[in-house]
Amino acid sequence: MNHVVWVIFDSARHDAYLAARTPVLDRFSAPQRRFSYASWTAPSHYTFLMGVTPHTSLPNVFASVQYREDLARWRERLGLADGESLEFERFLPGLSLPAALKSLGYRCEAFVSLPVLNPKTLLSAHFDHYELMPAHNDFGEIVSRLRFDDTPRFYFLNVGETHYPYLVPGETTADLPRISGLHGAYRELDEFLRDPATFADLQEVGRVFTPERLRGLWEKQVACIEYLDGIFGRLLERSPANTWFIVTSDHGELFGEDGYFGHGPILHEKVFEVFLLEGLHP
After folding, report:
1. What domain count does the chain have?
2. pTM of the full predicted structure?
3. Domain of residue 78, CATH code
4. What totals of helices (H) and strands (E) does the chain contain, helices first?
5. For the chain, which end, N or C, has fewer CB atoms within 10 Å of the first or last residue's CB respectively?
6. pLDDT for 95-151, tens place per residue?
């Protein structure tokens, strides 16, 4: 059976990926334009852990048809021989990809970069090892922790360099405001309720983020994708030939389009539009 490595470039926009120079990932195939099932990190990753990749949003097609076509690819992804079956009832009733793979003999490990995915959440269920990385932007450290042997491995990797504030290791956020996701909103909510005025600077998005700064942030995400492509080369060097890779984003990002910034409580095509590529080790 194949090893499976699923890598999520958190928040990476489809057009940012297309603009980036990605010679390593280009060895797989051209990226497909897909759409996330959710507009932010946690529910999107929960969908992934049901074994479902971003969808194609085809008209005049029943949802069940799209689900079947996507799930049926797991036979190819796992490298099952003719006559072998994944027995999809293994997914029931928990609807858990790691649980199904463990029943086939896989060791399942996850390394995540965003605190909203931390090991105390329901997402960690059924993994043999599930770890929140010390830094949100260190794909290189994640790669160094991966080990392959005769036991088939499923590695689920959430990568944070492409998430705001779009930093590679060694860079700082000194010139950018601190913007919290849901995890940070929980952490800071008591402080906000005591003194809302301390958070007032983020209420005027147009003042905080000018068009020039927003364009610079989009370009920064492109640069982070290029950086991750280089680290991906190290991942390929560590991975056996019988390794199947899925590389995608959990959702997109808004850089000022129609007055929006970021992701989450936003209904906009660009926050659902993502890239997807997959295939056997090139």
Report:
1. 1
2. 0.93
3. 3.40.720.10
4. 10, 9
5. C
6. 999 999 999 999 999 999 999 999 999 999 999 999 999 998 999 999 999 999 999
